């Protein structure tokens, strides 16, 4: 009887060890929070734009194709300018549409890859901007493939900017 009890205890201990090792192994291979969020439920990006802007619609399609849940809010130009100001988007940073994702502002035709990097890195900034409407940026594709070189800039509440990505 004593041997049977000892064998049961050893078997239970071995099972516990295997379960612990399996859990530790699986924990090392977890996805990043951004990957998990995009895989399980799409990251919501709220887009504020004019109802008549075609390039804004094309940028929304670009973001959706990249896995974002783009929720569009159409507004008048005056309302849009008020929204930009309330979010800290200065005149030199402005483009045609403004978005908010995970607490960050995204102004203009910023590529989805830059937005994903922003979410992953979580820098201490207000947001990103692609000032103006650069030809060849997402939503601003041109016939014949004409492209402008442009920068996506990170901007702070103080108004300071730095290059986040070159395109």
How would you explain this protein's 3D organization?
The structure is a single chain. By secondary structure, this protein is of the alpha/beta class. 40% of the residues lie in helices and 22% in strands. The chain contains 5 helices and 7 strands, in the order ααβαβαββαβββ. The protein has a 7-stranded mixed sheet with strand order 2-1-3-4-5-6-7. The longest helix has 26 residues, at 2-27.
Task: State the gist of this model.
By secondary structure, this protein is an alpha/beta fold. It is built from 5 helices and 7 strands.
Average residue pLDDT: 82
Low-confidence stretches: 6-32
Rg, Cα atoms, Å: 24 Å
Question: Secondary-structure element order, as H and E?
Answer: HHEHEHEEHEEE
Number of strands: 7
Helix content: 25-40%
Structural class: alpha/beta
Q: Distance N terminus to C terminus? A: 75 Å
Strand count, sense and barrel status of the largest sheet are: 7 strands, mixed
Count of DSSP H/I helices: 5
Order of adjacent strands in the largest pleated sheet: 2-1-3-4-5-6-7
Strand content: 15-25%
| Outline type | globular
